[in-house]
DNA sequence: ATTAATTATGCAACCGGTTGCATTGAAGGA
DNA sequence: TCCTTCAATGCAACCGGTTGCATAATTAAT
């Protein structure tokens, strides 16, 4: 009973299945009478065309994918990430597409999920975090002419690489301005270990911070110790601040670094005198022992923009946007 | 170049495409020689069969879906939820399936996402939160013979309804035992507003709490005010505790309720003397102004069990498990 | 060496839609 | 009235696979 095909409908209406197909796709060369009859029958029998067959004929899947690193701490392990997904999902729904989500399990013997998705043409377009776009994946995407948009700025400036990201330079600048407005002059940035600082978004935050400090005639100081424990130790000794003094404020580049600070605070009550600031907005910040300043990053907007850009690529719109930068605003 | 079909491979190997298909599907009736030749050619040309065409022929999608309420605070808005998804994803990957995720946008004019997924047969099986299984959706699933598993215990005890959930009775019991072991005797449960308390998991937590209290000869007291503000007010006045006294510990049924408590704390420093406990483990708990006791809920396991159960339904295994309850353990 | 049994492969239909082209039928023009 | 034009519909091929059945090729048995 649930296996109604287009042929069944055609038989019931006494027409050829091609005619039914034309009704389904809004073809205009159909007489009013026939169309109404077919529509009535379809409705009566609650007919829904098989999406697989449709996909085969159209050579499309009407599905957009999101593939992320299985181990990517920035994606799912990030408690804010669902907001990006919400934004993506909204746009996908408006376009009457579906959302296929997967993590890129590495190939144990076979193909990786990423390879399978692209090679099997399981989606019409792909969203992926910057961490996932290496040269091999890029080549695969291009070979299969698969439209894609990167979530997070990518340093690979090759043809066809489009990304959507927060304006981290601006965010850091806003945050620094805010701390200055609060009367602070000795402001330090805690950027984490060396390998972390190679990330583009960290570099951008450092840049934004430095620019404002310089412009205001203040000394920019970035904690550059090899590992974070070392950083905290130096901080404890006063080396990170002005002339051996503790700084008045510390900007933590990630919430993990902020938590390190807070952990460390347990044994160093004097830290309570220092203003802390960071770039994410946990709803729980206001319950922290230590008040935190932060900028609001509109992740939902980021998802929306990324999905919107992807659709303009899928639909081969005349003039698709290039990469997009989302502005931020101060909240607290 | 990237549009290699089975026919191309057959031509290159000088065989019929049926033979290639048999090699693809591991059919044994193929001579060693022919198989090796075809496999070599497939590898050389990096041929990957079109999954859509395959799906049409098999009448399968090799995809499992997860559909959740768009507005469901318990799903995506829940910062723990990604762990469930991780668990699901792992099992799906092991089964060489794909994971289709969507929120159930309500029908504006057309069908809801849920209806589309089921009617178009876009997935071979569906996972969904208990909130999404109303009678209409149940009927639709049964009509289309779509296997499904509910995430979260469902009160609808109809045929074919299987769910996976945490053992909330046990979790509350463990938590209560813990507080008693800490020396507390006056322990109150904060269960939130009436409409919240109608949720099965809240009722279970109340039950587990009551059982232990009774068993230990202690008085179980549940804050039952119509709204949470009222509850806090009464609490403030001492009504919720023993004989007008403040309780020694409060078990908050959700993290939202815990946050309400913490918010309220600002104006009521005496709350600091009271132990707080709840059922979720934010990694950030340890940074809270107020220490919190909690049980560890293995959400990843929950996702794994749910997906595993779904696959045994999809594969029509002889004796699929009924609903599954995941045990919990105390952490702090 | 001949026939029977078995294995390997080809043929063609099928999954459920879409679409270019041919055909029918009705309306318009001379 | 006959011919042209165009809208409405049918026919059949196609999308890229799978599979039952028939046939060819090989092996085993007599």
TrEMBL record, chains A, B:
Tell me the first and last residues of the signal peptide: none
Which key words tag this protein in UniProt? DNA-binding, Transcription, Transcription regulation
The HTH lacI-type domain is annotated at 4-58
Every copy of the HTH cro/C1-type domain together lies at 3-48
Gene3D superfamilies of this UniProt entry?
Answer: 3.40.50.2300, lambda repressor-like DNA-binding domains
PANTHER family on file: HTH-TYPE TRANSCRIPTIONAL REGULATOR GALS, LACI-RELATED TRANSCRIPTIONAL REPRESSOR
Please report the name of this protein according to its UniProt entry. Answer: LacI family transcriptional regulator
* Organism field: Paenibacillus oenotherae
Q: What is the lineage of its organism?
A: Bacteria, Bacillati, Bacillota, Bacilli, Bacillales
């Amino acid at each position: 009973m649930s296996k109604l095909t287009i042929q069944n409908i055609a038989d019931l209406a006494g027409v050829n299945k091609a005619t039914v197909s034309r009704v389904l796709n809004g073809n205009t060369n159909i007489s009013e009478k026939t169309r109404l009859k077919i529509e009535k029958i379809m409705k009566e029998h609650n007919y829904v065309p098989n999406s697989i067959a449709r996909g085969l004929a159209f050579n499309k899947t009407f599905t957009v994918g999101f593939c992320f690193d299985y181990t990517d701490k920035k994606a799912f392990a990030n408690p804010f990430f669902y907001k990006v997904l919400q934004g993506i999902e909204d746009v996908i729904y408006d376009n009457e597409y579906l959302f296929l989500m997967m993590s890129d399990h590495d190939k144990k013997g076979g193909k990786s999920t990423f390879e399978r998705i692209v090679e099997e043409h399981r989606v019409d377009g792909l969203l992926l975090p910057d961490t996932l776009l290496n040269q091999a994946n890029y080549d695969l995407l291009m070979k299969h002419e698969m439209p894609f948009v990167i979530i997070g700025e990518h340093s690979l400036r090759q043809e066809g690489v489009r990304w959507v990201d927060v304006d981290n330079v601006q965010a850091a600048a806003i945050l620094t301005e805010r701390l200055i407005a609060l009367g602070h002059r000795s402001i330090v940035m805690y950027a984490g270990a060396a390998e972390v600082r190679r990330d583009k978004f960290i570099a951008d935050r450092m840049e934004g911070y430095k620019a404002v400090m310089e412009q205001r005639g203040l000394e920019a100081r970035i904690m550059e110790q090899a590992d974070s424990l070392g950083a905290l130790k130096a901080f404890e000794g006063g080396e990170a601040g002005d002339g051996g003094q503790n700084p008045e404020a510390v900007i933590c580049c990630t919430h993990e670094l902020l938590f390190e600070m807070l952990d460390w605070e347990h044994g160093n009550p004097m830290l309570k005198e220092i203003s802390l600031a960071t770039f994410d907005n946990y709803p729980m910040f206001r319950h922290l022992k230590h008040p935190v300043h932060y900028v609001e990053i509109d992740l939902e907007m980021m998802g929306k923009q990324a999905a919107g850009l992807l659709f303009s690529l899928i639909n081969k719109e005349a003039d698709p946007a290039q990469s997009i930068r989302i502005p931020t605003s101060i909240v607290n």
